[in-house]
């Protein structure tokens, strides 16, 4: 089945899908995006993702390219046309096409692009069984990391550094020495007393939908969590470390900056939370 992309009202072959050279997303990173996981034909956290998309657009005073109901239909049609039962939807909305000039264009219409790709549940399960390594890097991003903007250059540089160091992810660290989040994931630790800790939502992190869904699941399972910043030292000496995202779900981390976490295997709390999350997605 050949891949199909949705571009401004049309379904086109993926390898022919294109936007204009003066699209403000291309020229200024003047756009927002969402990545929505699909498991067994179900869109996971759909409401949360769409709420966050509208919030991102509102924060940037960007016009919606369409209402929510037709957008939901397009998402399902993109999945159907690409035969995706397990995978990810990617959608990007920009301030549209206009002669290059910094101020918002007066009459441009927002552009929307959507694609879907398959992912392998087996591969993800294997990675979760083994655990991954992360490195820490300085957080050099702007002051509005709560907006899911396509301006991802600092994230890309950090992720590339991770790859070059044989790591899966880079956890970014603020000027005070506290972990903010990964390049496309939220960071969590379990301290030596067994307390679960993740940074509170603020302008310094993207409020992950996986993070929010897991927080709700924790509450309904009566598992306590501290919403506070934690230092690199706390990260290095944690009993367990894991990360969350739409593509990684709950992913145990077994090594940070070359230091082994716990016994070098995914910890029991991380494994348990992954199971709880997988159950939530599969049911
Ligand atoms: C910077 C950043 N933090 C966290 C996340 C995790 O968010 P979600 O769980 O909604 O995928 C992402 C996802 O892309 C991200 O880019």
Question: What is the strand and helix layout of this fold?
Answer:
Elements: E1 4-7, E2 10-13, H1 24-28, E3 31-39, E4 42-43, H2 46-59, H3 68-82, E5 87-94, E6 111-118, H4 121-130, E7 132-138, H5 153-164, E8 169-173, E9 179-182, E10 186-190, E11 196-198, H6 209-220, E12 225-227, H7 232-236, E13 240-245, E14 249-256, E15 259-260, H8 268-282
This protein binds pyridoxal-5'-phosphate.
Structural overview:
- There is one protein chain.
- The protein has two domains: 116 residues, Aminotransferase class 4, branched-chain amino acid transferase, N-terminal domain (D-amino Acid Aminotransferase, Chain A, domain 1), CATH 3.30.470.10; 159 residues, D-amino Acid Aminotransferase, Chain A, domain 2 (Alpha-Beta Barrel), CATH 3.20.10.10.
- The strands form two sheets. Strands 7, 8, 9, 10, 11, 12, 13, 14 and 15 form a nine-stranded mixed beta sheet that branches. The protein has a six-stranded antiparallel beta sheet with strand order 2-1-6-5-3-4.
- The mean pLDDT is 97.
- It contains eight helices and 15 strands.
- It is globular, with a radius of gyration of 19 Å.
- A hairpin with a 2-residue loop joins strand 3 and strand 4.
- Helix 6 packs across helix 8.
- It has 283 residues and is of the alpha+beta class.
Which characteristics define this entry?
283 residues, alpha+beta, D-amino Acid Aminotransferase, Chain A, domain 1, D-amino Acid Aminotransferase, Chain A, domain 2, 2 domains, nine-stranded mixed β-sheet, six-stranded antiparallel β-sheet, 8 helices, 15 strands, 28% strand, globular, binds pyridoxal-5'-phosphate
């Amino acid at each position: 089945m050949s891949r199909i992309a949705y571009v401004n009202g049309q379904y086109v072959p993926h390898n022919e899908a294109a936007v204009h050279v003066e699209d403000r997303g291309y020229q200024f990173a003047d756009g927002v995006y969402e990545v929505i996981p699909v498991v067994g034909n179900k869109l996971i956290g759909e409401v949360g993702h769409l709420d966050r998309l509208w919030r991102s657009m509102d924060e940037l005073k960007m016009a919606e390219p369409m209402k929510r109901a037709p957008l939901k239909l397009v998402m399902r049609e993109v999945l159907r046309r690409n035969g995706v039962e397990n995978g990810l939807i990617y959608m990007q909305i920009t301030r549209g096409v206009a002669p290059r000039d910094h101020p918002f264009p007066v009459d441009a219409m927002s552009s929307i692009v959507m694609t879907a790709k398959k992912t392998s549940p087996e591969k993800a399960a294997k990675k979760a069984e083994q655990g991954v390594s992360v490195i820490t890097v300085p957080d050099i991003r702007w002051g509005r990391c709560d907006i899911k903007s396509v301006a991802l250059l600092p994230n890309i540089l950090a992720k590339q550094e991770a790859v070059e160091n044989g790591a899966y992810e880079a956890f970014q660290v603020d000027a005070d020495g506290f972990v903010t989040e990964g390049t496309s994931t939220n960071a969590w630790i379990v301290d030596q007393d067994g307390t679960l800790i993740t940074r509170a939502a603020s302008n310094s992190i993207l409020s992950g939908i996986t993070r929010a869904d897991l927080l709700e699941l924790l509450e309904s399972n009566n598992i306590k969590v501290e919403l506070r910043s934690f230092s690199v030292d706390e990260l290095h000496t944690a009993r367990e470390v894991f990360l969350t995202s739409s593509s990684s779900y709950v992913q145990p981390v077994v090594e940070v900056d070359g230091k082994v976490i716990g016994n070098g295997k995914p910890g029991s709390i991380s494994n348990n939370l992954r199971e709880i999350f997988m159950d939530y997605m599969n049911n």
